Structure prediction request, 177 residues.
Amino acid sequence: EERLLALLVLVQGVGKCDDAHRKAAYDFYLDNTQYVNNWDLVDSSAPAIVGGYLRDKPRKPLARLAKSQSLWERRIAVVATQHFIRLGEFDDTLAISRLLLSDMEDLIHKATGWMLREVGDRDETALAAFLIDHVAVMPRTMLRYAIEHFPPETRRGYLEVDRPPKSRRRVREWPSM
Prediction:
């Protein structure tokens, strides 16, 4: 598909350019998120373009994206943190994951669980601390992805935690347009 090819070319370019060009790619990307509207487009581009640009900058734009009405912008927010995870930095992933706990979209649950699992692969203690605080309210898909690499008995323990009724877990107030 043309959009995927264009994004992959953009990803290749940001790895080899100076900060001015990286910012131009970042701005272009965020100005055109309505076209980055499929999980494979987001997953193949957000870490390098968004995460790569923000690696040495304030990461407040991730919170704005995580609060967006756009499913794809919310996914960009969490998947972009993969760049930081690879650098051993987990705080942004955990913060964005907290913001997305009550999200209604399965594609967000999967992406968030995936990023949490990536954190756990590098620092199991950080993931365990997050789970202790949030396991009871995490969407089931998010939880399953996050604990996928745990031993079976540990996974079972997390899956057996008492959870409030769905109606009280996933309440999300969307800003009016």
Summary: The first helix runs from residue 2 to 14.
